[in-house]
What does this fold into?
Amino acid sequence: MKIPAIKKLVENNNLNELMAAEAAIVDEQPTTIEVEGEDEGEQLTHVLAAVWILNEMEDNGTDFKTALRMYTQKVRVSIS
It folds into this structure.
């Protein structure tokens, strides 16, 4: 998971574009947006993170940095 890649997705795409990219990656199809990552797994991780962050920002009025921090805390808890 690379924070700059997630930030770029959040800044440059809307939720519909990210959801379409998620579906394309899962179906092993090319995406219509640029998604950074060494492989499909990392690309999917970046897209899922961006979707979660955008939803948090839109639903709760959270700023990007706070939403990103919340997401990374969730990740840390899930892997510990």
Helices lie at 3-12, 15-26, 40-60, 64-79.
